[in-house]
Amino acid sequence: MFASTDSLVFLFATQAVVFATLSIVFFLYFNAFKSEYVKYWFFSLMALSCYYACSTILGSAPTNVSNYLYLFYGKLQQVTFYLFLVYLLFGLYTAKNSVTPKSRLVLGIVGLAIFVGLSAATFYALDTNNTTTHIYLTVSLQNFIFACCLLGASFYLFIDKSPHFSSKILLCFFILLGLRYLIYAFLSIGYLTEDWFEKITLFLVYFDIGSHSVLGFILLIWMQGAERSMATHAINRAQYLGEHDSLTGALNRNQVMEKLSEAIIVANERSSRLAVFLLDIKQFKFINDTYGLKTGDFILSEIAKRLNNSILVPKAVGRLSGDSFMFVIDLHRNAPSANRVPSHL
């Protein structure tokens, strides 16, 4: 079947299948982890797959096909390409900020993208006297919009305060692709009728096919990196909670007793002494009953913070239970002021 099919149409069909398959991977990942940015990128890849499917149909359609059928697939091609861009950028924003955009904003921008795509594909589509104007709307305008959005996204990634490997790759990719769309937008306005412009257009078709494939790999790398980061964070969090009190951040009872044992061994080896203080907050129940549990929790957290930041440089600070804390210092270092430790506390 493909033996008589144009090679470019075959590439379009291949890309449609590739991105449909890739979107299924993102869909399965979203179902497993419920990451909002993955949902947006799933929509983006599905739109890109539909775009290439429309390109396949338009490229392989016979010459005697109805103009209205061309118009339908031309509209669908324009709309899906704009949706690909919109959902790609929404996914990027959600991935970087871990904040889901408001549904009203998403629907508004998606509606605007559909309107622009339909309008550009409809105006002068069947008027042979205004073919150039139609090309300006479907090609020049589209390329200019893509250039502005991608260069804006690259600037957003550039000023990001916490860049990672995938972010840097995507930054370079957006700059390259944004410049490609910007240059082509201006060339299509001034040199549309030149012979060499058609060759550049054909070259950029192959360039876009390759760049979209690279984009799919970048999004996969980002997703895998995010998954690994979440797993590492969960492990570190579990280890931290296994050693620290979840409310105050001080060592829990088991860990502070272990630290005390280690400090005793070190003190014996250095012929120094330790001072162990057991602290209780008087009338703490009254504080909880009068001002509420949130106020009591804040006071406990503040006490743990002040004990850890003490100028006496404690060997261990732990919360034993409720409003009970342990404070351990090395008297060898603070011998001159040892009798002032209780008043300091």
Molecular structure report:
By secondary structure, the protein is mainly alpha-helical. 73% of the residues lie in helices and 6% in strands. The protein has eleven helices and three strands. It has helices at residues 7-33, 36-60, 67-97, 103-122, 131-158, 165-190, 195-243, 253-269, 284-291, 293-308, 341-344; strands at residues 274-280, 316-321, 324-330. The protein has a three-stranded antiparallel beta sheet, with helices on both faces. A hairpin with a 2-residue loop joins strand 2 (316-321) and strand 3 (324-330). Helix 3 packs antiparallel against helix 4 (103-122), helix 4 (103-122) packs antiparallel against helix 5 (131-158) and helix 6 (165-190) runs antiparallel to helix 7. The longest helix is centred in the middle third of the chain and has 49 residues, at 195-243. It is elongated and about 100 Å long. The protein starts with 6 loop residues before the first helix and ends with a helix. The model is unreliable at 1-5 (pLDDT under 50).
